[in-house]
Amino acid sequence: MRPKAREGAIVQGSCYRFTVLTSQLIRMEYAEDGVFEDRATQVAWNREFDVPQFRVIEDETELQIITEHVHLYYTKGPFAPNTLYVDVKGNFSTYYSRYMFNGPERTLKGTARTLDHVDGATELEEGILSKQGYAIIDDSSSFLMTDDRFVEPRRKGIHDIYYFGYGHDYKQALRDFYTLTGPTPMLPRKALGNWWSRYWRYDEKEYKALMRRFKSEDVPFSVSVIDMDWHVTDIPEEYGSGWTGYSWNKNLFPEPKRFLNWLKDEGMMVTLNLHPADGVRAFEDQYVAMAEAMGVEPESGDRIPFDFSDKRFIQAYFEQMHHPHEADGVDFWWIDWQQGSTSKMEGLDPLWMLNHYHAIDIARDGKRPLIFSRYAGPGSHRYPVGFSGDTIISWASLAFQPYFTATATNIGYGWWSHDIGGHHRGKKDDELAARWVAYGVFSPIMRLHSTFSTFNGKEPWRFGIEAEQSMKRFLRLRHELIPYLYTMNYRNHANALPLVLPMYIEHPDDEAAYQVPNQFYFGSELIVSPIVTPMDRKLHVAGTNVWLPKGEWFDLFTGHRYEGDKSIRVFRGLDGQPVFAKAGAIVPLMPHQPHANETGNPSELEVLVFPGASNTFTMYEDDGESRDYETGASLETTFTLDWEARTLHIEMSGDLTLVPAKRTLTVLVRGVVGEGDYDAETQTLHIPIGELKQEQKVTLPVDVTQNVHRLDRLYRLLDRAEIAYDLKDRLYQMATTKTRLEAWLFDLHALELDRDLQDALLELMLD
């Protein structure tokens, strides 16, 4: 933390202080007694920015601060709408680019604490990005961080506001927000694989059998999430509810350490569920030690209340109730806090305290600060991963999650984990389950989950054959994507760009980017527009609206080419998902390892390359667990595609000991035609390189396809469609005989087809 700003950034009077942190970020404080705060807060950890250029115009009653990007006006006295306002320079809005104190906020929204009990959309808090060019964070009630690493409340009656006047420079706004509040830490590599989670009363035998079944079915998982029944829940009535607990249920898990070691041997991290609200009671294994630490007579059996406003309780809570489990093999904790935002210390949110101290504690021995908990306000990105709550099983819930996840980026919160497939209520729906998994693979964290019900599980074999195959295919794909995901993990940490970005962050001045709320960038190379509605039962495909920016785009799976700078409807069966790679995209992959949960730096590497443009992509690797990367223990492999020359240059730099000494590489060029090991269905040329050298150049003997396989795809669509055979024959004949596109379009229009069928044909036949 570097909370004290540089003196040259400060403009101060008897009751006011303005700190010009950047030419676009200004801290605005008011205190009647003229006492201002230089300590860190729950939100703001670093105010030591380089001082930007700015001018001050001042007399006895008025003050103006003018930077390159904003103009602040202040009539000296208490902050009020008529005394304090700021204009952002630039033509962002005809009427709404002026911030007035306590005025309306018109941001692109941020995120919400939880999706508990939400069926569809819910109200979101404000973010720091706005089409109008400005936003604010009011830090006036945020608690202060003290020198002894605790917190204390702010004084009443003060104002402490951060003004973000970034116009449409959304990326710079995010960068400066992360500088102010602290970066997102690196996630462990295993956290980017599939998580298995189910609220179910497993015992050791059943859990191991399930993990073996997953392996035999070739469904990989890298994180084991064990819900509340890991601990004793059937307790004497005198102690109250069994939701809170810290002692293993030995009837279910006779030797917990043995069980945890088995999961580790299977390649999995482990997290256990916590409901800490009821404190520590006399039936717990560690009660005596906890009581002695808290000065309670163990013989009394008195409950030790949960109290995160008590420093002594916090220390004992970790040392007595958590560290022994971590020594046995628990990697991190699922903090399932549901009891609101009040505590003994007025205004202090227990959830924020739990998140903050759990992250600090788990990282005490050089580990990464990984937790799993709900969002607790701006700055929560420092404590990943986010638990979005108990999702209702419905199409409405699925339809809201892509927007909800992408929009959270507007407050820097990039690592949401949802109950993929839904948690409770609703009904069994094979199609919904499969679509949700397909979305989950392209969400920040892929965690299946379901409630305590004999019938409500997310094992793929519980569903019909088509849904089962789709779910398995996408779950395997998630692990194949880990090299790409881990690189974006580093990008989030080092460059302040989360994995999932709303379209307008990359295209802020294109109005079309604001009209596709469920579409998002998935890292630097891909765009995703997930299917979130039921399919057309006659066509066996479902559609979604997609806006493709300027340039060429290729279907990730088939290589089908699309011309950008337009909006279209695209259609996919249950085995597909609308994912588009930009021209020149480079996506590193781990080849699928059958019947394995492998997530480490692979000995075999595949690089998926798309045609049409030159590009550079740098894959990032480290040990995937420790914080040694902070001192340079990392490896970067840079792939430079020169499309005109049809070459791919590869160069490694950094610590080569982090990866297998004999790593092999295969280049997959998709969306092309070529000679040799060529897959026509995916339009992919396989180019085996053999052992990867520290520097080498690969020749790509390929040409762009111009969608030469479009008729094959048209045939498959029509062959499966439940429509009249005469219509199928006519449509196929039209596509194969018409030489002029205009004639085909007129004939198609004259048939007055159903909208989905017409749009599906247009997608296939038009570039």
Helix content: 10-25%
Distance between the termini: 52 Å
Structural class: alpha+beta
* Rg, Å, rounded: 28 Å
Write up what this structure looks like.
- Helix content is about 25%, strand content about 25%.
- The protein is built from 16 helices and 39 strands.
- The mean pLDDT is about 95.
- The strands form 10 sheets. A 6-stranded parallel sheet has the order 17-16-15-14-13-20. Strands 21-22-23-28-25-26 form a 6-stranded antiparallel sheet.
- It is an alpha+beta fold.
- Keywords: Glycosidase, Hydrolase.
- It comes from Exiguobacterium profundum.
- Belongs to the glycosyl hydrolase 31 family.
What topology emerges from the helices and strands here?
Layout: E1 10-12, E2 16-20, E3 25-30, E4 55-58, E5 62-66, E6 70-75, E7 84-88, E8 98-100, E9 135-138, E10 144-145, E11 151-152, E12 159-164, H1 170-181, E13 194-198, H2 204-216, E14 223-226, H3 256-265, E15 269-274, H4 287-294, H5 311-321, H6 323-328, E16 332-335, H7 350-362, E17 372-373, E18 386-387, H8 395-407, E19 416-417, H9 430-441, E20 446-448, H10 465-480, H11 482-495, E21 500-502, H12 503-506, E22 520-522, E23 526-528, E24 542-548, E25 552-555, E26 561-563, E27 566-572, E28 579-582, E29 586-589, E30 604-609, E31 615-621, E32 635-642, E33 647-654, E34 664-670, E35 672-674, E36 678-679, E37 684-691, E38 695-699, E39 702-704, H13 710-720, H14 725-737, H15 741-750, H16 755-765
Parallel strand pairs: 13-14, 13-20, 14-15, 15-16, 16-17, 18-19, 30-34
Antiparallel strand pairs: 1-2, 2-3, 3-12, 4-5, 5-6, 6-7, 7-8, 9-12, 10-11, 21-22, 22-23, 23-28, 24-27, 25-26, 25-28, 29-30, 31-32, 32-33, 33-38, 34-37, 35-39, 36-37
